[in-house]
């Protein structure tokens, strides 16, 4: 819907947009801090210990303390590091994440039975756009690893390439299967078209392939060979200190939240609610977004729990898994999706 | 095979190289061995008497007798007898044949004995310092007349 | 190692400080892509000169120093040293002391194997395994703490006996700890057997055959995983091991998975030994009757002689060669640590594997560099 602004307030519009943008970025970082807190508490629970519990109630302010620590650290650069790549890698890492956020709807409100999704922009090809932009982060990782003049980072970078190349293909194919069945590439359409029969029931194989490829894309255990703390010290980010490391760290967690959003929107039914809630004036405002957030948190907990419950693959096993096992499954799912779409459409 | 048979077989095979062969108990025996025949004796022990486990190679400094000794402890995976072979070396120029070709794990033991005592092992594939830093090579710290200890300890430096 | 490098080769140091190591040593790897072409180990970062120190301290002071050869299994190191000296002195500790020593040795074995399993899980990325294993280890360390008063570096053994008797309530606490430990070890074994990724990382990795292992001179769980039943407790029994019923745990595969399995089985066997000991332990004095050895040992002169004594360390065969010249200080003590030959055997094993496998193989050897360097 459009808002009509009187004439004398027109010059203020860029300022208003800027302030709204900064507030949203603030929310996103707070969301990332919440995700890190969730990870630390959940991992502590899995390992029968207490996580952060001293700074703030339930350790909620622990991340604030960590951010202050990271800001106050010295910014070291190795002697022979490539300045152009080293200094600017953070731009790519965070930039790709924020570009993804532009097209992602974070909820919806139902006013008088009409649905208004909450997204910064609505594109016709939003799913394809999100896929394409999420692949930009690999440039950031390679810039750090190659520019650090460090052998451990270099080994991490090589492994990263092998992994990303292998897993982009099943990821794209499983997304295309969902789009093919729905008949649109707009993520808002895919989400609303599910109604109450979610895509996970119609395409369980597709959901599985998408989830595994997403974990590999994000670089989470069991696919974090580029980091693998035990073999390569810290892998690709060994030489980053202070807030440079902090920004890379946050970029990874924001990517994780976005990945959970994607799973919830594409396969778990998004914000769809039964009719009686949509027509209710009060519940229509909060319930759909609330449902979506609950699904996102659930997927986030699965991703986090999986990290602490399994060991790590070796890099040749990872590449083997992607090309020999996930790709055939993704193709099979595509055939199934097209067939199911034709049957349901007919 | 018990200890008496082992010692008898050894002294029969090398009558001039083995001397003062004694059996201290049912599972321990020891003898002196001529320093030029060590490798042959070890090869015989490994092939015929089933002594396939080298426990350790170490050096001992007998400063009163003006001698260094290289002591080999050889055991077996099959029977519990441990044989102690000692080779006497003069203190001025101690050299002995290396047994790396017979027992593979003698490599590091001999390197360590070299840097701690100064005993040169001929035909060793890689004789350089193992546990000591390279600039301490030549000081032979474990000999009894080493001047660095205890003068170089922290108590005397601060 | 320093020859001309090909265009796509590089030398990487898994250097003295690395999250993956059990202690500081430098592993120089020559990599071609991800494959290891050549490997070399440099030691000496934690060399304390214990053999020279022992020549300048009395035998009683030596017990405290021998603790620090490997701080994780201090009681077994003390056992070796005190056993050597007792053979030279010609005394034998009474039955009760021998049973107490066996109890402490087996508790040390359990906690060392738990730490080894946990660290191995951590090296291949399974951090939660480390946390679970450490949690169980805390209970066992609490038991050792009850008896000796310390969690590491205990200084508990004395010539002819032990420093203090077992405290009251030790047997009940120990049996309850063992009940929990049996269930936890079953859980760990199930985790290792059913986790698909774990099996992919360990089965068939770092395979040793029995002949190669014997040639390389390794001992302990690494050798028993290849099928050779070599255990000092059965070969030349010391203390009261000949009165106890236990079996030597072996596997045949010789890979990383078999080594972990051997350690899990050994924990179970140790619990069985401990239950027998707590059952059979007799009353009696702690030191031999009618001798001067007691809780306060005077400065004593050890008769001249030499002896070579071996014990079964959790990591293999530990030996000490002690020469005495009749004075109150040893003339020469040579310490043969169990991890020394295992570390020596590491470079030939990892040539041809990838960097990720280096972590697997090195973790499954489970050692303590402190006792390799002394």
UniProtKB/TrEMBL annotation, chain A:
Primary residence: membrane
Please state what the protein is called: F(420)H(2) dehydrogenase subunit H
Instruction: List GO molecular-function terms, semicolon-separated.
Output: NADH dehydrogenase activity; reduced coenzyme F420 dehydrogenase activity
Q: Which reaction does it catalyse?
A: methanophenazine + reduced coenzyme F420-(gamma-L-Glu)(n) = dihydromethanophenazine + oxidized coenzyme F420-(gamma-L-Glu)(n) + H(+)
Q: From which organism does this entry originate?
A: Methanosarcina spelaei
Q: Which GO terms describe its cellular component?
A: plasma membrane
Classification via InterPro entries: F420H2_dehydrogenase_H, NADH_UbQ_OxRdtase_su1/FPO, NADH_UbQ_OxRdtase_su1_CS
EC number in record: 1.5.98.3
